[in-house]
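Q: How do we represent a protein-ligand complex in a form that can be generated token by token?
A: Start from the inputs.
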Amino acid sequence: MKVLVIGKGGREHTLVWKIVQELRVEKVYCIPAGNVGIEQLADCRSISLETNFAEVADFVEAEKIDLTVVGPEDPLAAGLVDVLRERGLRAFGPDRKAAILEASKDFAKQLMMKIGIPTATYRTFDNPDAAIDYIKKINTPVFVKADGLAAGKGAIPGRTVDAAIQAVRQVMVEREFGAAGDKIVIEEEMIGEEASFTVLTDGTYCLPFVSSQDHKMSLDGDQGKNTGGMGAYSPAPVITPELHAYVMESIAYPTIDEMRAQGRIFKGVLYIGLMITEAGPKVIEFNCRFGDPETQVLLPRMENELIPVLEACIDGTLEEIELKWRREAAACVVMASGGYPNPYETGEVIMGLKRANALEGVTVFHAGTKGYNGKIVTDGGRVLGVTALASNLKAAIDQAYRGVAEIHFDRAHFRRDIGYRALERRNEA
Ligand code: AMP
Ligand code: GLY
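Then emit the structure tokens for the protein with glycine bound:
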């Protein structure tokens, strides 16, 4: 069969890496072109994802592609899956009506409130003055969030009244995230440890993945600014079997059931961003696609072929699938361009990829890379996800950092403490 993957980041390189290994797959395509890691495995095409998707659908028809797997949230929220399905083409991911669960934080919060899913208390505003009055009135640490999609960077901490007011201005007046900031959600700050809970669903049945954890902040010790994600590991010991059962029963199923009741049948990945607080787990956000960089640590641990699992989601037969996972742990360290998530330079030559990939258990997933004059150069904020699989988490983290040590590009930035919470937990035990 022929498979098309949409997206060109680290998550999509990982999807392509997994899919090319599968028995029934004869060819993998990717749109758009650019990522060198993906180009080494797939036939990449520079087709725009900005417009009405007709060109993508024409391409799928012309190449007789059997399945399209959509990686990022933007084309899902803009209805790429709807366009493909209307033409009778198979596509993995939620349609536009279902993707709103990620595309509007206000929608997600309303849904959670309606069905009693634990989450931070919040208010939604479409006017900065009203938002600022509210911040002054409550005078507690908050998070200010653009309602719409902002590449994972739309949540700004406002731990003081001044910082929160500045965040409102940044989103609503300076419009840093464009129309995504027409509305904002202001919510109380939750204290605890985060975890990513990934569930596949066919709209009725929910199939959980193993746990993982991301590191959203740019600097060690969770300091600095919010990013798309600076590293990840799996399993995340913070998700105990009891918590796992609770999340499935009290968060995943009620959410999918409510979506179905609203005529929004959710087929695809439901990513539940959790804060494990003293009062129990609370939902930070829902995403409608695989996490990035969580995918880089989940798929290497997956023993099943992915395509049959994704097809079962589309066909509504997910209940028949049993997932098998390798016992090894995985860790991913993201190497980013110096300055990220603020403006950064690109075009730095990357050295040492072969040496890193040659280390036992190490795979370097590309995110922002491109080919230039026969060299591989940086071409984005997050550049690489250096991933290692090893017998336990400590060994996986150490091996991932050995991979990082082999790689060089000017002003490379990475966190040196990926997995620290899990290691602290281990040391306490
Ligand atoms: P979001 O864009 O909603 O996923 O938020 C991005 C990141 O901001 C999360 O992964 C958390 O680290 C942090 N965050 C968002 N909302 C809250 C909150 N209410 N309390 C504490 N941290 C939060
Ligand atoms: N790693 C967080 C996300 O994918 O949204």
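The mean pLDDT is 95. The chain has four domains: 2-92, 121-188, 194-320, 329-428.
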